[in-house]
Hints:
By secondary structure, the protein is α+β, with helices and mostly antiparallel strands. The chain has helices at residues 3-9, 38-42, 60-74, 82-96, 138-143, 170-182, 225-236, 248-252, 283-300, and strands spanning 19-21, 24-26, 45-53, 56-57, 101-108, 125-131, 145-153, 186-190, 196-199, 203-208, 211-214, 241-243, 256-261, 265-272, 275-276. The strands form 2 sheets. Strands 7, 8, 9, 10, 11, 12, 13, 14 and 15 form a 9-stranded mixed β-sheet that branches. Strands 2-1-6-5-3-4 form a 6-stranded antiparallel β-sheet. The site of 4'-deoxy-4'-aminopyridoxal-5'-phosphate has 13 residues, from helix 7.
Amino acid sequence: MQAQEQAQVNCSTKTKYDCWKNGVLVDADQAVVSIYDHGLLYGDGCFEGLRFYHRQPFRLDRHLARLRRSLSALMITIPYSDDTLTEAVMACITRSDMVDGYLRILVTRGEGDMGLNPLNCTTPEVFIIPASLSLVSETVCRQGASLITSSIKRAVGTGLDARVKSLNYLHSILARVEANTAGVDEAILLNQFGYVAECSAENIFVVKAGALLTPSAQDGALEGITRETILELASLQKLEAREQSLTSYDLYTAEECFICGSGARLIPVKIIDGRQIAQCLGPVYLALSRAYQALIDDECGGEMS
Ligand code: PMP
């Protein structure tokens, strides 16, 4: 991919929108943390990224449920109910005046001291940050993405569970650096046993012998909300769909491959490590993409296309 186009893939407008910080709507420049915040010092915290369409957040309940699971795994307690966070999300959307956009819900363990002991952090910081995020270029959506397999591993069973959406994204960032250096769109992370986990910021699906397959959380996949939605849509379409361990060979020989996430939505894949994927854009991708858009319109109150 040309450098100019790659820049578009990563573009997000620089517009700052008012944010919610610990119960109050504030100017983005006031939505700041202390330099002793453990989120900043140690990546100690977690987050959610979701989209809103027609001014309605898409599957917010599931994002809040995953946020609660991450918080619980990290032993961080926040003093806000799901109802309060939902009201806060709606207030941010209204204040932003965007019809469609992206929201980051972010929790840090809060201010402590230079030591890493979390006992010194008494008050978590909770932010909601609206953005108009455009992650994927039109060309990539139309023609398919090129991926490489990263040398960075998504380790499983070695400490932090891949299901925790923590503020530590260095493995993803390093994988993305490899993709940038190789001039491709995204990188696939394997786990330490050589099984496919996910991409730097998306889950991955393949179609093999007509069945839709995706790695499990045990193999290092985040429990993606989009992934879960795709599995539900596949079942509605009577398409055989299941979690399965996959190797690079399974990706190279797939009938179809696509990646998905709240930010990126569904992206068809055309090349992996220089191997052309048999069908791009394939019929399963096209059917699921249409169903995903219809679901958004249905749940967020837009026009059916
Ligand atoms: N994996 C990783 C590492 C991610 O950061 C994301 C984006 N949140 C996903 C998968 C996709 O998850 P979701 O569909 O919930 O956005």
